[in-house]
Amino acid sequence: MPQRYSGGMRDILDRQKLAQLNDGSPSAALRIDRLDRAIGLLVDHAADIADALREDFGHRPIVASMVTDVAASIEPLKHARRHVRQWMRREPRKVSPGALAWLGARAWIDYQPKGVVGLISPWNFPFNLTFAPLAGILAAGNRAMIKPSEFTPRSSALMQRLIAGAFDETEVAVFTGDADVGAAFAALPFDHLIFTGATSVARHILRAAADNLVPVTLELGGKSPAIVGRDADLDLAARRLMFGKALNAGQVCVAPDYVLVERSKVDALIGALKNATVAMFPTFDGNADYAAIVNARHFDRLCGYLDDAEAKGAVRHPLHVQSGRADERRLVPTVLTGVNDGMAVMQEEIFGPILPIVPYDAIDDAIAYVNAHPRPLSLYYFGDDRVESERVLSRVVAGGVTLNDTIVHLTMDDLPFGGIGPSGMGAYHGVDGFRTFSHARAVYRQSRFDVTALLRPPYGAAIKRLLALKIRR
C-alpha cells in the first residue's frame, strides 16, 4: 500500500484517536492554526496542483483548476477560520417547564469534536472535494484520514506529499492506493466517515461502515434536472446551462443532467445552446479552455450513451462544428432530442458533456417528470415567473437549488450542501459542516433545589396532582 507514514492505516487511526483523547478538544487557536496550514499549502502550491490535474486528465484548463480546485478550496477554509470561534460557543437552550429556570436550572449544547473523520474524495475535483469538507472537519476540532481517488494518481500523490509536509500524521494523513485500499479504508472504525462519489459505490461504503456503526455523510449525484420556465430568457438560460455543462467537460456532480423546456421552444433552445458553446469555445479541437474526459473508460462510456440513444431513436445535435478528438478524449458538447427512459443516457448519471432535452406541454408535466424519478442532488429553474418558480420549489424535493443559473448554490459558504435519498445523506459547508462533524452534546444543570424529590417514591398526593395537570388535553 503506497503511503509515507510510520504505520498502516489502522495504526494511524489508533494513534490519532489516542492523541485526540490525550489532548482533548482543541482550542480555537489550534483549530485556526490547522486551517491556516491547509490554506497555506493550497496558496503555496497552486501551480503544482493545476499541473497535476492537467496531467491526470490528459488536459484540464489551468485557469479552471485554479478556480475550482484552488480558489474554491481556499474559500471554505477561510470562511471556517473567520467563524470558528462563534461556532464553538456554548448554545443556551430553554429548560422545561420554564419555572425551573427561576430556580436556577440551566440547559445548553456543547459542540464536541467527534474524533477522527475518514474522508474519501473523488477524482473530478480532487482538491476541492477534499479541502471543502476538511474545513468543517478541522473547524470542529477533529483529526482526519483521507483516501483520494486512484483515478487521479498524480493529484493524490501530490496531496499526500503536501499534507505530510504541513501536518503531523496524528493530525491529518493521506493514504493513496487502489480500490482494495479504499475498501479497507471504508471498513475502519472512524468516528465519522464522509464519502463523495458514485451511488453504486456508496452502497458498499454504507455496508462497510455499518459493521462499526460509523455515522456516514454521503455526497452522491444522480440526474439533476434543469427546468426552463415559460418566460425564461432562452439566450441567458443557454449561456448558464452551458457553463454548468461544459465546466470540467460536464464531469461535475451538480451539472445539469437533462433539460425540460416547453415543446414549442426546443429548437430555439438548441440554437441558443450552440451559440453559447461557440462563444465559450470559438474553436474546439485543441482548445486550452476545454477539459478532456478523465480516462478512456469514461470516454467510452459516454460514447456508448450516445450510440445507445441514437440506436433507440434519439437525434444528436453537436453544439460545435468540430467533432473533438478521441485520442485526446475530447468529447464535443452534444444535445440529444427524442430521448426516452429506455435509453442508458436517461437512466444513469451522465457525468459528461451530453445534454438530453425533454419537452413538456405544461409546467405540471415537467414537475411530474422530475418527481417520477429518484430525488436529485440539484435542481435548476430558469424564469422570472414567481408563481411558477414557487410551484416548482414547493413540489420538487432536491438536495439544493439554483434559480436562474447552475452550480452556484454549491459555492455559497453559508448554505448547506448535500443530497437527499439516492443523491446523498447529510450535508456540509459552513456552520452545517461544523455541526455535521461535531457531536451536539446536551447538558442540563439542575437547580440547588431538590426538584426531583417529587418524582421519587414513596408517591403521594403531590405527584398525583402533578400528573392530573400534565395528563390532559
TrEMBL record:
Active-site residues, record numbering mapped to chain: E219
Gene3D superfamilies from the UniProt entry: Aldehyde Dehydrogenase, Chain A, domain 1, Aldehyde Dehydrogenase, Chain A, domain 2
Lineage top rank: taxon: Bacteria
InterPro entries to which the protein is assigned, alphabetical: Ald_DH/histidinol_DH, Ald_DH_C, Ald_DH_CS_CYS, Ald_DH_CS_GLU, Ald_DH_N, Aldehyde_DH_dom, Aldehyde_DH_NAD(P)
Every Aldehyde dehydrogenase domain range: 28-443
Pfam short name (any one): Aldedh
Protein keywords: NAD, Oxidoreductase
Entries under SUPFAM superfamilies matching the protein: ALDH-like (SSF53720)
UniProt similarity note: Belongs to the aldehyde dehydrogenase family.
UniProt cross-references to PANTHER family, sorted A to Z: ALDEHYDE DEHYDROGENASE (PTHR43570), ALDEHYDE DEHYDROGENASE ALDX-RELATED (PTHR43570:SF20)
Protein name (database record): Aldehyde dehydrogenase
